[in-house]
Design a protein that fits this description.
This protein is mainly alpha-helical. The chain contains five helices and no strands. It has one domain. The radius of gyration is 16 Å and the shape is globular.
Length: 141
């Protein structure tokens, strides 16, 4: 769903209901994958370290702040949500997070042992579009 919603964000007209719906779908799935990859999903959820005990995602200050923003601005009805565009989590932020998630997930898959490695690789080969190599990833929404 992350890839599907991100692709739809790239082509949807900003400010329209479709864009807002795909944005929310993207945010929910990016947060889930962030929690999985950083193993911050808690013991009641699956985490990357459940499959690769020594896996450690490469978080940056920007990555950490981006997911804090998503938490406050989209995932909760907070009273401090920004109303002006400059303070909002925008398409370029989504794009940066998307690239981070794809990169970190690739690292995770590279460290998987069997039987998980063959299952993950097979599903990715069947579904992974080359988003990072397409021209629309460089579009400015």
């Amino acid at each position: 769903m992350l890839r599907f919603s991100f692709e739809k964000l790239c082509f949807a007209e900003k400010g329209k209901l479709d864009w807002n719906a795909f944005y929310e779908v993207y945010v929910v799935h990016s947060r889930n994958l962030y929690d999985f990859l950083t193993s911050e999903g808690g013991q009641r959820n699956y985490n990357a370290r459940d499959y690769v005990p020594k896996f450690k995602s490469k978080k940056t200050g920007r990555t950490i702040e981006a997911f804090r923003q998503l938490h406050a601005q989209v995932l909760h009805l907070g009273k401090r949500r920004p109303v002006a565009a400059p303070g909002k989590f925008n398409f370029n932020d989504c794009k940066a997070n998307y690239i981070w998630i794809e990169d970190q997930f690739g690292l995770f898959i590279g460290q998987l042992g069997n039987p998980f490695a063959s299952a993950w690789a097979e599903s990715l080969a069947a579904t992974r579009p080359p988003y990072r190599m397409t021209s629309w990833l460089s579009t400015n929404h």
